[in-house]
Amino acid sequence: MKKIKLKELLNSTVYFTPTFTGNLTKRFKVSLKKVLFYVVLYSFLIFLLTSLIYFFTPARKIILLFENKQLKEQALKIKDLEKKIVFLTKELEAISSTNQKLKYAIMLAGSDTSDSNSAILDSLRKTDDGKLPPGGGNVFFAFTHLLGKFFHINTDNKGIIFIKPTNGFIIRGFNPKKGHLGIDFAVKSGTPVYASAGGIVIFSDFTPNDGKKIIIQHKEGFITIYKHCSSLLKKERDFVYQGELIALSGNSGLNTTGPHLHFEIWKNGKAINPEDYLSIR
To answer: What is the biggest distance separating any 2 CA atoms in the chain, rounded to whole angstroms?
Structure first.
């Protein structure tokens, strides 16, 4: 097959046969050089016209304003994305911190003893004598504690008495088979929630399922849990007396269908029926 040279190609001709509406047709013969010349000339004229319009008419300002507007919109979107990233990072850090504190609380709840020499309780200790703070705050506790001081009676190992954490009636009882590990008190949002017994707050934060909740560590391996609060008035490491205001009831968290207080008592890592331990029902 013979190769076509560039010079021969440029010297060749191109035929145009336009189709008209009538029966008459006409054929035009044009050299390839002319076709290329007209294409280049047309492109140059278009480029020249566009440049003149861009530099000598308000079109340039319009284009620049449009470009600046797009750049500003992109910058705003980038800033918005940065804010969302920072917010999500803080949320993840908060969730991680909450999970760590909850794990810490579960460790305390699962311990078989509340020995004051325990490494876990050591970081929560408020007193300087190596003992856990006293666990009461009601009249009975004040009376027995006063007797102990005057007559040198050791009351540290006496059993714990739990009181109702709020002024309401029980609408749902303890049912571990259905996953209900406590009792529910019917109260409206904002009702005071009291410490059922004295102890140390080992968790006070928001969790997705339980909402705002407080966990208190008591003597003899007991902990109490207060869920779905609207406001938490105590923080981790705070010591609370029995009957002291610790929170306000509410309807926070996913696992709730209305305002109430969910209350649990655990003994050595196992949920027990609070109604068997409450002194006032």
So the answer is: 133
Structure tokens at 181: 């590990």
Sequence-distant (6+) residues with CB within 8 A of 234 are: 201, 204, 214, 240, 246, 247
State how beta strands 222-232 and 245-249 pair.
antiparallel
Question: What's the number of CA atoms in the CB half-sphere (13 Å) around residue 215?
Answer: 24
Q: Please write the tens of the pLDDT for every residue from 124-182.
A: 444 444 444 444 444 555 555 555 556 544 444 456 889 999 988 899 999 999 999 99
Instruction: Report which listed range, 35-44, 145-154, 269-278, is most confident.
Output: 269-278
Q: How far is Cα 206 from Cα 215, in angstroms, rounded to an integer?
A: 12
| 115 shares its domain with 39 | no
Looking from the CA of 257 toward its CB, the CA atoms found within 13 Å total 3
Considering the domain architecture, whether residues 263 and 126 belong to the same structural domain is answered as yes
DSSP 78: H
